[in-house]
Design a protein that fits this description.
Blueprint (H helix, E strand, L loop, with lengths): L6 H9 L6 H13 L4 H14 L3 H13 L14 E5 L8 H9 L5 E5 L9 H5 L11 H10 L2 E5 L6 H12 L6 H15 L3 E8 L8 H17 L3 E8 L7 E2 L1 H12 L5 H17 L7 H6 L2 H12 L13 E6 L4 E6 L1 H13 L13 E4 L6 E2 L4 E7 L5 H7 L4 E4 L9 E5 L1
Parallel strand pairs: 1-4, 2-3, 4-5
Antiparallel strand pairs: 5-13, 6-9, 7-11, 8-10, 8-12, 9-11
Helix pairs in contact: 1-3, 2-4, 4-9, 5-12, 5-14, 9-10, 15-16
Bound molecules: uracil.
Length: 427
Amino acid sequence: MTEAFDAVDLIRAKRDGRELSTAEIGWLVDAFTRGYVADEQMSAWAMAVLLNGMTRREIRDLTLAMIASGERMSFADLGKATVDKHSTGGVGDKITLPLAPLVASFGVAVPQLSGRGLGHTGGTLDKLEAVRGWQAYLSPEAMLAQLRDVGAVICAAGPGLAPADKKLYALRDTTGAVEAIPLIASSIMSKKIAEGTGALVLDVKFGEGAFMKDLDLARELARTMVDLGTDAGVATSALLTDMSVPLGLTIGNALEVRESVEVLSGGGPDDVVELTVELARAMLAAVGLPDADPAAALADGRAMDVWRRMIAAQGGDPDAPLPTGRETETVTAPTSGVLAEQHALPFGIAAWRLGAGRARQQDPVSAGAGIELHAKPGDRVEAGQPLFTLHADEAARIPRALDALNGAWSIGDTPPEPRPLIVDRIG
Ligand code: URA
């Protein structure tokens, strides 16, 4: 086969800041997927994009080319509106767990194709695998049947969705080319558009526990993704949310499932409830239900009923006790005062070191490992009062987790400035 372009020319073009044509981008992604463009060439090209950026048209072409590299799902025959949510990831972010059944309790289908965690951010599938018997892998037929019968599905994305993204993401991950807005936006949106959802709400996080440390960059990422979704006919909106402190009071797989069940029982920490309810409102508004009251569905058990059916439909036992780490260590307040700081990133790293996360794709995770927080910034604490408890399967993991937490929290005399959790909405 005669190739239409030369990879080296396209790398040089991006290196020198030239805008690539639709045909050039389409060829590059296709030739990379076929294995004609080598990994080192695609890595060099990704780094040139990271340094020089892409125009809106180029980002759209890249997204469409990655969608075209695989299959597209369709929920057109379902007879229900579909809406999905994507979070760019954070520490203690378990929102998908209560959110999917909550939104489905309004008769909407929620096809939530999720991933596993890497590094300090957890993955939804890892969390749900803490539930005894629960299966992440569903055939497309089983997924459709569950969407019809239960309304909510959280499962693994099949290998056929945007395979070019899977290959490119693995290269970016090992070559320092993750943090590029055009690449992140096209990566996330190619999978979401290929998945076939009719509407999408994005939770774009900023702050030290997030991909995007900076609010303005997070806003640009959100805007870029909302434009991509809208251009592709998916009703897309975004919330910008603060990820400078851990979300809720738990970090780690089984611990986060436990907290999600508390939210579904009408309780749970205020920040988790607020974000769950606001994302549910945005999702329900996107499918024409602007007056739905998600807080009521948490309070009266409707969302919990869907959770139990959703877990059972995938082989899980919603009543089984959740695994716990064999070893625990509780850190107490050295003095009385107000908890002034609690930094998301070191708490995420500590949970990872305890075994809740993985360093490489193929590593296993511990279901019981993680951190339980007993106080949040602004809470009054007395000397000797527990601040947080570390959980692990092996005692040897605890000292390195404690190292990560050096300087991660502080007690002062005055409460910190209250910070809004949701700082902006786009789309
Ligand atoms: N998540 C993705 O799926 N892709 C990225 O590039 C970053 C986060």
